[in-house]
## 1
Amino acid sequence: MFLERIASPQNLKELSIKELNTLAKEIRELIIDVVNEKGGHLASSLGVVELCIALHYCLNTPSDSIIFDVGHQTYAHKIITGRKSDFRELREYKGLSGFPNPAESEYDLFISGHASTALSWAVGLAEAKRLKKDKTKTIAVIGDGALTGGMCFEALNMCGHKKSDVLLVLNHNEMSISPSVGALSNYLNKIISLPIYNRIREELERFLKHLPDFAKRVAGKAVKFEEALKGLIIPGIFFEELGFRYFGPLDGHNLENLIPLLNNLISLHGPRVLHIVTKKGKGYPGAEKDPEKFHSAFAFSSKESGVVKIEEEISFSTIFSQKLVSLSKKDKKIVAITAAMPEGTGLNLFRDVYPERFFDVGIAEANAVGIAAGFAKAGLKPVVAIYSTFLQRSFDQIIHDVALQNSGVVFCLDRGGFVGKDGPTHHGVFDIAYLRIIPNMVCMAPKDKEELEDMLEFALKLNRPVSLRYSKEGSFSLAKREKIILGKSQILAQGKDLCIIALGSMVREAKKTVALLKAKGISVSLVNARFIKPLDEDLLRSLASDFNLIVTLEEGILNGGFGSGILEFYEKENLLNKIKVVRMGIKDEFSPPAKRGKLLKLYSLDAEGLYHNIIRLVNKFSCGSVSKVV
């Protein structure tokens, strides 16, 4: 096996092209085997195996810099760069990250989990190298989906303007592509990437600068010949107009063509694009047939058939979408918007029933929010369904385009809280803090699936900016339904010793904790907060009269979070001298990748951890009738 011989990228250079092709198959087998066991981003990583091999074969990494956009395509990169022996701990707690991570390897420059970022990083890095007279190369690898992001377009503009020494590898993995992928395109790219061709071109351009205007116009036709030829055959005019040299499209799985072309392009300078075409999920039939399903797959139920294990519980995403479809049947003003995540958010159900009212803007969250503001201004009821972590990318649009206008946009934040093995780039732990500070916003979090349905219906009637956060986990029912009233909480248990105010996903753990405390003779009131903003101020005043200890629970960052809002209220009311408020949530750090249950335990947010921490608080403050608990 050739894979056994690969301890670093330098070992690739010892292999022939034929041997590299065999290595690609071995790497695919390892990726499939590990994802079969651990789950992970299968389709995207399988699609770029040859590209990762070719880049490391042609470059001198880590001196030369490779920056991967999004980063979920880097499994082959990790295997090649000395992490093969650790690869079976992919996406495990304290194991390998599913994304690039500089703490893990010098071959990873940035932690990249969001799209459209790599080219901006690459331009900054390349310009820094220019200032430092560093001659090493800078390569950015992005997918065609990243081109829908505004940040990527801004970086293209800057790179072309500054003539930054960046090679942009555009990985196009759509099922079909221009027929110019083939022998003629390969031949043309070989010619126009050869060093001798480019020396002649550069000399000609310098010569033309010194000609009279008439001669310059005539001789300039020679330079235009290349552009005209490529304009007829190769779809690169867009990049050429932005100041890039364009090469492609090229078969991204053909190492015989890819390696010589890369070697030629690496020797060039300035902004250039290599456009490759790959097949998502290549080498695994199930992923090739349905790459969206295998984008971030659970462990397989059958390695041979490529069937993905299905969660037994119906997800909150599905509950949300089913309710939205039901409401939209009665209300034709409802429209749904997502940013390249119809499957992940559950909006594929809405799309199938109401395709004319469904809008997928691609990886462009800021645009999604801006479009929603336009819908609201026209009197429609836009529902924007985006993962919590990705909605961060539209913070200014939420403030300026929606909240400042007091527009009726409903933000449905999927993956609120811990998301598991995707780790810190994907944990949705900041939305409570970054949304509750915005004027005009109403922020809610349901305790269970029935409350999610009721809150969605309530939000669509408010005609003002509303956020609704729910977790990735399977849905469940916790308690009887009670009507949703703006800013009003729900009391789930009455006690006399202390009070727990739990938000959204933490209500379930709080209920278990109350039962454990009851067995110790501690009587606890439990409040389902429902609203992050506005707070139930009447209830909070009442609680301050009844208890000397109030514990807040949230699956979000503590700094500026839900508990901070409660503290701010009691400070405003001059009540902090009467009561002790203890906030429990996620401390000031980026949380690691791990299963949600493991992370709750790590931060003492599971029932057992909450129980022990509350016992310590009771012993410290002598709450109610309880003075000491052993």
## 2
Amino acid sequence: MTTTTPDLTAAKPATIGRDLLASLVVFLVALPLCMGVAIASGLPPTAGLITGIVGGIVVGSISGSPLQVSGPAAGLTVLVWMYVAQNGAGMLGVAVLFAGLLQILAGVLKLGQWFRAVSPAVIHGMLAGIGILIFASQFHVMLDGKPIGSGIQNLLGIPGALLAALQAGDSRLTAAEVGLLTVIVIAGWSAFAPKWLKVVPAPLVGVVVAMIAAAVLHLDAIKFVDVPDNIWAWSMENYPTVDKLMRIFETPILIGAISIAFIASAETLLCATAVDQMHAGPRTKYDKELTAQGVGNTLCGMLGVLPMTGVIVRSGANVEAGAQTRLSAVLHGVWLLLFVSVLPFTLKYIPLSALAAVLVYTGYKLAYPKIVPTLLKFGRGEVLIYAVTIVTIVTTDLLKGVVLGLVLSLSKLLFAFSHLEIRKDENAANGNVDLHLSGSATLVRLPLLATTLEDLKPGSNVKVHIGGLDYIDHACIDLLTNWDRQHTATGGSLEIEWAGLKNRYQQKSGTAAERQAAKNGG
């Protein structure tokens, strides 16, 4: 009996119905998140909605990961907020445009697989750090305030802001209560809603409940979402003009573009890998996906709106809702376009604190250190890299945290390939010497091995235990071979215990082990 895998690259009549339902679910997930991410980035909700539309209709049509859904992502929120605060919203389009071009170039040069080489500890540290920053900044927005400044300032300022709202008892406290209600509804719906009802996304339920509460209780004093009748109006004012484009070589603008390109690519391809694990269809074509993201971000840059990535929340909802082809992602973009074109006035009834609460909850979920037990399985070094990445992101900025995490990962790798321990057990009575090697025997540590061998007494019976090695290279094997010849001439012997070591050089001829076997009649 043979089984067939559904073709996820093109819609068929049998799958259109499932794609249609999945697209509606993703649309309902994307709607509040697009607006929330935009507001958290220091931009109007329309900047996120337009990015969601482009991510669905354009990127969804050409993506290398058919079931992945693209749009504005929480992972870029902090980076964009800092960039806008430093350079102004009018310069965002320039950075996003050039970030998109860099992604297209990377895709054409087939660099997609290299973005997957980032250490999981760094990626998870980046996401956790972003989660803390989102939580800290949006907590202030949930109180109808504004972020104080840097990530650490926002985090340390939470108790004072909350205390001030409680003491004043004004609209800030009311906004906080609406935000708390939203968080409770999201958590409760996620945990206790029947499975058949969970097709309705928890963030949407939380926002709707907040809207109803604000309307019934006449909470007119709190802030509500401000959406223009023409969603394209804000974008038109922020198109990257020729004068703006000429500023790309200014250091802050160039660094912003490179940072957006790198972080967006890493997050997208990490998301694509996760989506591949959720279904049994064709695997992601990473270079094609990277190019598609570049096209989307280039277009978003031309429109002066938020950058995009592949988003795991929307993509996971897409797969769980039964999507079969890329049609689902495309249709979700169509529903976003129709909604904001025909019914934009409905968005004005959404309390700003409710959208902030959605991101506070999202930030908490990102920051929760659930990955630590998994990282511990690979050693404390991975947990250290994870923790340092988080702390650096929160106390400085996103790019410094990721770069430091990458440097630590490379340092750990270099240490692993250059760390060699040699323990010597010597029996003077019978002239036996046991050398226990652990770590990696490479040319980097060859001087240590050579010195240890040269210090041994002539005529001694030496046994080298290399089962504890992770790797031994040809240079060290050659050293043992040559030393064996010299040591045998003094009346001594050398035996190498190969058991437990898997090394591609082990089977090569001319080693001391083979000569020892020949001596023993093997």
## 3
Amino acid sequence: MKKIMLLLCLSSAFSFCTNETAYINEANFYTETEISEDTSFFTAPGLTRALNEAEPETDFFPESFDLRTKGIVTPVREQENYGTCWAIAATDSAETQIIKNGFEQNPDLSEWHLAYFSYSGVKPFQSAAENVFNSGGTNTIAAATLSRWVGSVYEEKAPYAASYELDPDTKFESDYKLSDAWNVHALTSSHIKHSNDFLKELIYNENAVSATYYSRDEFYNPDTFSQYCPDESMTVDHAVILIGWDDNYPKENFKEGYQPSENGAWLAKNSWGEDWGNSGFFWISYEDVTLCEAGCFFSVPGDTYSTNYQYDETGWTISVSADGNQQALSGYMANVFTAENDDPVTAVSFYTTEDNAEYEITVYTDVELSSNKPSPVNGKAAASVSGTHKYSGFHTVTLDEPVKIRKGEQFSVAVKLTNHESPYMLPVEASSAVVSSGFFSTQTFLFNSYANEEKDPSYISFDGKSWYTTTGKKYSYEYPEYLNLAKSLSRLRSVTLGNVCLKAYSSHTETAPDPLDINRDGSVDTADFVLMMKIFYGTEEDEYITDLNNDGTTNIADLILLKSRLTETEL
């Protein structure tokens, strides 16, 4: 249906399989067999206030503000007869940041590519729609897709509505790569409402904010291009971009019979073409009860990173605690990866599950994961960094120094996350959820059919010492009220988990190799000295570069130079 964001509907019959494992606490991880029914997920998801909204740095804002005056708002799009408004909104938000950060002045990224490959190709989200371009979506789905490095690509590579099937080989092309997606929430959450000051701070700091609301003509005044819905029973159906506000926008401008009690409205950019509204723009009352979400998307040029080490293809579905009592506010998660090349690790990305969450990242090299060494952190701590993220959502943290890795080497990334209110600080995939729907009855909601089939394990820990795998395990909740669950999941019993949402990025390096690193293992150490001695004594073939001082020959001077480096003396 034109001009409507079709809510994601994930319908499927799903049978649970018995899984002979139990971890941490029998009340949390357990095994059982459930009877599934055909169900629909995200039916009337409802709205709720953010549990712990980040406080703005100031409560003083100008009476009116318009991002168009900054020259960072891209042209109005026309979604036509497709449910792609969510993809357009996410792309618009990213384009604004591309201009703001000086990457280019007129970015035009493909919304069609994002909408199509969210539901097509390798490991897509499920879609109940016959046409994937009418599947609808959310900020969370956009973040999950883009964080896989599925896009963003330029419009010319996947023009809007030009083809209903895209070349699968173009799925993982990225002219820009997602770095952050502020204020997105778990796939299972309800739609989150925010205060005016929270939204104003985002916009005032030059962010184009992807928001949703109920868009029907019943509540729209075409004469003044204004929208106000006072009915809380209405379900959001459309995504737009908030780019400004006016505290003095007259309440009388709204449709007769549907007027708010006070002045004030948000300036919004729609995706229904320039012939609609005021050249594609309109106003939404501060008091519109359906206005929710506040996603902000950030990207970096595609060549910033070379390799994405990841297991969480479907992104943040739900949150868990590693604490058996589900009361502690800190927990750890980790993934072990095998280096695909020699490019050093330069960044780590993950989700935080509430505002002002604290993080501590450690990257380990020379990890030897085995039955005798089940811990993912048994290697050498090669880098660490800590900080706080003001907004929940997806974040990329650049390491202070690149971590050198060798192709085929196992390395791991561990993150400690600390919340202030919710004990569920660890973001994870989930394949399905079991909800109590009556006496001795259950409903099974399918999120994706493969998260519990992953062979690569993820790990969580309460103390950073004892680690437990998540993949394929069932998890039950003691305090689901902290999860901001969609209405259809309000009686959640358990979920089947996939991987934790934790990635590592490597980057190409143009730095010349250290000439004293004879064996090219990424470091100058005693192994190089031993190799040099073997070459001198003829027990090792001289197939290495050993003329370290570039004087045209390999001699004792080269050996002295290497020894000097190792002993940090000048000879």
